[in-house]
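User: quick one, fold this
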Amino acid sequence: MSGGVDSSVTAWLLKQQGYDVLGLFMKNWEDDDDSEYCSSRQDWLDAASVADVIGVDIEAVNFAADYKDRVFAEFLREYSAGRTPNPDVLCNAEIKFKAFLDHAMSLGAERIATGHYARVREAGADGGRRYQLLKAVDAGKDQSYFLHRLNQAQLSRTLFPLGELTKDEVRRIAADLGLPNAAKKDSTGICFIGERPFREFLNRYLPTRPGPIKTPEGQVVGRHQGLAFHTLGQRKGLGIGGVKGRQRDDGTADAWYAARKDMAANTLYVVQGHDHPWLLSHELSATDASWVAGHPPPPSAYAAKTRYRQADAACVLARAEGATFDLRFSEAQWAVTPGQSAVLYEGDVCLGGGIIV
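Assistant:
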């Protein structure tokens, strides 16, 4: 129970279904817990208040050391290497469905449940029982992308009670119950770290290493403070707004976008125009593959997301060997970014994915 409305309604639904429910509040960040950006104290008060209203016990558990070792250290390594990681994917795999799951089992729990918008489906008989990860009914809130690294053992012990509900229905249930957090806004910050000025935050952990910003033709149009602070497709915060570059007939100019990083030369390349060829990719390679079924699907036609807020894109799984796989898309994908996750789907079924290289 995070203190948010989703996990609060989850706890109430489980109690209504006859489960013996224990709420666990995870504290995973301590570096600046008293700052305006880290709201864990208020979140704990909200979670405890909800537990009191719905009549369940709740306890706090501290996973800050696990989070720093398993998630945040990798997060910084990826940024240092010029990639753009997705901390929520790693946080789910290492904390919510590993450290939290292990802790719950040590308390004698049979299942864990979270407020994620996704579904689990059992397939097959006892002898060959398999678990599938499915998209949520509410397509706008579906979080299967962030959960694609879950394996059979984790899914067999996990419940997602909100998978069949829409966010509006969840808010309505919370309001009808009189939950104190019924109208609390959704968290959109880094998993457990909160919403904060991102470059300023990274600056505390990664050194600045200034270098040139160049066009594909080699013209220097500005300077960056470090490649770690930029991501492909980035438009704002490049610091080159006054550089006109190529002009249209009406005298206006296309916007600039970060398009490539040359780590060896410490150079950020920028292009003009949303549809510049450097921003478009018909294929990608991924590594560190994780498949929900425990093995890769056969080469065939599927759909994929290369970032969370993206419609499914038709693709072909051209190769899947060991920890790597290749995808080919029928339509070019925009700003395919190393470090982000490429997640494969067959209809509503999430098959797994890997880290784009």
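User: anything notable?
Assistant: The first helix runs from residue 5 to 16.
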